[in-house]
Design goal:
Blueprint: H1 18-48, H2 52-96, H3 102-118, H4 120-147
Helix pairs in contact: 1-2, 1-4, 2-3, 2-4
Length: 148
């Protein structure tokens, strides 16, 4: 049984150029800008209302949204990492049976792992944004419920 080809999903070393690097900078910048807009929207939402009830409801809705978003992100990351682990197990099985395509498959898996690790920047930017928004909402809830 031949090992499936992953070359369509992984950019090879020869395809990387300055254009790809500049697009990566643009994507990272867009992620940061989108995060700042999200924080501004959260700040606007939690400071807009005058009554304690409205503020608490908005804060709880934001916390629920963040919990759902974080769980989907965590599930996606876990499934990708499990896929990479299972792929390496299958390559090990193919290697035990003496398949000739194992070195090529290991190289593709290594490239796929590197591509996945390059995407960690976006995950950590979004995690920091979520954490800051969580702190804003938590401080506003404490302010409304305890100190007000």
């Amino acid at each position: 049984m031949p090992i499936p080809d992953l070359s369509n999903f992984v950019e090879t070393k020869t395809e990387q150029s300055t254009r790809d690097k500049s697009w990566r900078i643009v994507r990272i910048s867009w992620t940061v800008i989108r995060g700042l807009l999200y924080i501004a929207l959260v700040l606007l939402a939690v400071t807009k209302f005058d009554s304690t009830f409205e503020t608490v409801i908005v804060c709880i809705a934001i916390l629920i949204f963040q919990a759902v978003e974080h769980s989907f992100t965590g599930l996606a990351r876990i499934s990708i990492e499990e896929g990479l682990i299972h792929r390496s197990y299958f390559i090990g099985l193919y290697d035990k049976h003496g398949d000739a395509e194992v070195p090529e498959a290991r190289e593709q898996l290594g490239d796929l792992g590197k591509y996945y690790k390059k995407q960690d920047v976006y995950y950590w930017i979004n995690s920091v944004v979520r954490y800051v928004a969580y702190l804003i909402v938590l401080v506003r809830l404490i302010w409304e419920l305890v100190l007000s």
